[in-house]
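User: Here's a structure from my thesis project, written as C-alpha cells. My advisor, Dr. K., wants to see whether a designed sequence matches the one we expressed. Can you design one independently, without my sequence as a hint?
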C-alpha cells in the first residue's frame, strides 16, 4: 500500500485545515487507516484512526472534539478535518495504514512521507 498526504500548510490559531491521504495498492479496503504527527524535537505520536468500515474511530485525548477522521472507500482516501487549531498542533502529519480491517492499536505498518502543518499568527 502506498500513501500520499496533502492539504498541509500555514494556518492561524483557531483556524481549520483538512488533510487528505490517497491510497493505492490492492486490498486497501482491508486496512485500518490512521494519522500520526511529529512535532520538532519530539517523537511521533498517534492522532486518530478509523477502521475499514468507517464506523469505528479512535482519537488521542489532545485532539478529541477538534479533529475528525473519516474515509471514502470509493476514492481510497482518508481525511483528517482539523478545527480550532492550536500552536501545539504544529507538526509533520503522517498518514498510516495497518493490514487489518478493525485494528484498534497504534502499531501501523505502512506510512506516507508526511505533510507539514504550521499553526501560527
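Assistant: Designed independently from the structure alone:
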Amino acid at each position: 500500500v502506498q500513501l500520499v498526504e496533502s492539504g498541509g500548510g500555514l494556518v492561524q490559531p483557531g483556524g481549520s485545515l483538512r488533510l487528505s491521504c490517497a491510497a493505492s495498492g490492492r486490498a486497501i479496503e482491508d486496512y485500518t487507516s490512521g494519522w500520526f504527527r511529529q512535532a520538532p524535537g519530539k517523537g511521533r505520536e498517534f492522532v486518530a484512526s478509523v477502521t475499514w468500515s468507517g464506523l469505528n474511530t479512535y482519537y488521542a485525548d489532545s485532539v478529541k472534539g477538534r479533529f475528525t477522521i473519516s474515509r471514502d472507500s470509493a476514492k481510497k482516501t482518508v481525511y483528517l478535518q482539523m478545527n480550532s487549531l492550536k500552536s501545539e498542533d504544529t507538526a509533520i502529519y503522517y498518514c498510516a495504514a495497518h493490514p487489518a480491517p478493525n485494528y484498534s492499536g497504534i502499531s501501523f505498518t505502512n506510512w506516507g512521507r508526511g505533510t507539514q502543518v504550521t499553526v501560527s499568527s
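When you compare it with your expressed construct, this may help: The first strand starts at residue 2 and ends at 6.
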